[in-house]
Each structure stands twice: as C-alpha cells, then as structure tokens.
Design brief:
alpha+beta, 3-stranded antiparallel beta sheet, 2 helices
Length: 131
C-alpha cells in the first residue's frame, strides 16, 4: 500500500485500512449501495473519541446509534453517519440515502461536533467525495 499503510482483516468480515492521512473502516457485510452520494472529512483533534461518543449519545436519544470509543454509526433520517476516532483525528463519513441534501447533512454534522469542541475552538471539516 502506498504511504506505508497497512491493512487488517477481522474474522467478522471487517477490513481496516490505515494510511498516514486517512482511515477507512469498512464492514464488508454491511456495505450499502455504493452509488449513494457520500463525503468524508478527516478532522484533526486530540479529542476524537470524546466527540464521537458525545455525538452518538446525543443523537442516540432520537435515532438508532451504535458506538464504542473508536467507531460509531448513527442512522440519521437522510442517511447513515459513520465515525472513526484515532489518537489525533476523527474520520466523519456522511452517506446520503434517497432525496436529501449532502451539503446540509455535512453542515448539521459539523455544527454538532463543533458544539462539543467549544473548548478547542472551531474544527476544520474539509469534505471530500467518497468514491
């Protein structure tokens, strides 16, 4: 893999790809229609796990949410939100299902995470399309 990355395959059908700049956590058995619009932002923060858990707990009152200290998923009305935390970054993936607005989903997610990060200051979300 380019950039000195590595990969690990888990017995339950999950593959983790690690690279210096990006983290992809793909549950092979749970892949949805790959044609649905999606975007990802890698957000630099030393509090990634904290923000992941806070957001999943917050939205877990209204929506189905599963999470642990390193990864989370929230079934939002407009599509799933996937989060992966490392020691220095939070990977945020928005997937749009049906007729929705990906830009709006990105704004809502970033706004909520920034509320939890008020002590740290506004975080930077550089959204890139997921292909």
């Amino acid at each position: 893999m380019v950039g000195g990355g590595s990969s690990t395959f888990h017995a339950r059908g999950q593959v983790d790809f690690f690279d210096e700049r990006y983290i992809f956590d793909i549950a092979i058995d749970d892949l949805k229609d790959l044609s649905m619009p999606a975007s990802r932002a890698i957000v630099s923060t030393a509090s990634a796990s904290r923000y992941l858990q806070q957001l999943c707990k917050h939205w877990g009152h209204k929506f189905e949410a599963t999470f642990d200290s390193r990864q989370g998923r929230v079934a939002l009305p407009f599509g799933p939100l996937e989060l992966v935390a490392t020691d220095d970054a939070l990977s945020v993936t928005c997937r749009l299902e049906g007729d929705g607005d990906l830009d709006r989903m990105q704004m809502v997610v970033a706004d909520h995470i920034n509320r939890f990060a008020f002590r740290e200051g506004e975080l930077t979300f550089d959204w890139k399309p997921v292909t």
